[in-house]
UniProtKB/TrEMBL annotation:
Protein name in the entry: ABC transporter ATP-binding protein
Record keywords, A-Z: ATP-binding, Nucleotide-binding, Transport
ABC transporter domain segment(s): 4-232
PANTHER family linked: ABC TRANSPORTER RELATED, IMPORT ATP-BINDING PROTEIN
Organism encoding this protein: Streptomyces fildesensis
Entry keyword Amino-acid biosynthesis: no
Length: 232
């Protein structure tokens, strides 16, 4: 079942008196339970792809369908609700709230959804544990954590909402090999167990090797990469 689809998406940015084409006729379908990796050179459009899929940027043309909803037809309010309900986002810039502890970063997701924060505590703790944050670290605020620890809180928070679509930009960039491998395991497990449609941008070959499918982005265009070339 396709959970995320992009059809002939074009995105441009202003560039002096011209427009720079960041995404050029990009089409993509990601199924429930599929882990898709997107690689490609710097500036090729990978982050733009995630931003459009996250409904944070509107494409100039083309269609973006998330969990059966054509996002072009939604109001800003409906798009925010769609994001909160169905999309987990882990971008490079940490957008953790400075005044909240690691545990509270997750609980606020439940609060925004109108769920029971008390009931969510245990699951939030277990999820932070699974990304390697012990009880003491879970009680710390972002400025008391390392960059890699903040990245892991980000990942746990995105997973906490059990999103249908998970969008991850360079999930292991701030982590050492062993921690990176644990995050990869977690992403692969969550994708399979919760039937999440996961798209991750990565330069990490170990991560690419774990993906079900690898796509290459060059100059705003997406192309399939034969998997054996990645695994060699
Ligand atoms: N807000 C913006 N305004 C203008 N141009 C932008 C903007 N954001 C990105 N670009 C340009 O769009 C192109 C695609 O950028 P994007 O960030 O999507 O690439 P990327 O593949 O994610 O790069 P990297 O691997 O370096 O993060 C680049 O040429 C970039 O300079």
């Amino acid at each position: 079942m396709t959970v995320l689809s992009l059809d002939s998406v074009r995105l441009t940015y202003p560039d002096g008196d011209r427009r720079l084409t960041a995404l050029d006729a990009v089409s993509l379908e990601v199924a429930a339970g599929e882990l898709l990796a997107v690689a490609g050179p710097s500036g090729s459009g990978k982050s733009s792809l995630l931003a459009v899929a996250a409904t944070l940027l509107r494409p100039d043309s083309g269609q973006v369908v998330v969990a059966g909803r054509d996002t072009a037809r939604l109001s800003d309010k409906e798009r925010t609700a769609l994001r909160r309900e169905h999309i987990g986002i882990v971008f490079q810039q940490s957008n953790l709230l400075g005044s909240l502890t690691a545990l509270e970063q997750l609980l606020v997701v439940e609060h925004l959804r109108g769920g029971s924060v008390r009931a969510a505590r245990e699951r939030a703790g277990a999820l932070l544990d699974s990304v390697g944050l012990d009880a003491a670290k879970r009680a710390r605020r972002p400025h008391q954590l390392s960059g890699g620890e903040r990245q892991r809180v980000n990942i746990a928070r995105a997973l906490f909402g059990r999103p249908a679509v998970l969008l991850v930009d360079e999930p292991t960039s701030a982590l050492d090999h062993e921690r990176g491998a644990r995050i990869v395991d977690l992403l692969a497990r969550v994708t399979a167990e919760h039937a999440t449609a996961t798209v991750m941008v990565t330069h990490d070959r170990a991560l690419m090797a774990r993906a079900d499918r690898l796509l290459d982005m060059t100059d705003g265009r997406l192309a399939a990469v034969p998997t054996p070339a990645v695994r060699s």
